[in-house]
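re the bet — no i am not wrong, look at it urself. input seq straight from the record:
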Amino acid sequence: MKIYTIQHDKKDWDCYMGHVIVANNHEEVRKLAKDIAEDEGVEIWNDAIIEECGEYTSQRNEPFILMSDFKNG
């Protein structure tokens, strides 16, 4: 699996601005971001920027969110 970042530039409150996600591909990254969406809504993640950061070498096999950036209002 690989480590990805996903982020958008919508300026709002009570929403996730981005995540660091361990997954196999971009589709899994978008799905995980949409699954926990708050006030930003799920559609924002369709056009969010995804960047690959490196390889995940630990033992977990399922995709997961490693860290999130939440803008609290």
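see?? Residues 2-71 form one domain. told u. also Residues 26-35 form the longest helix (10 residues). so pay up
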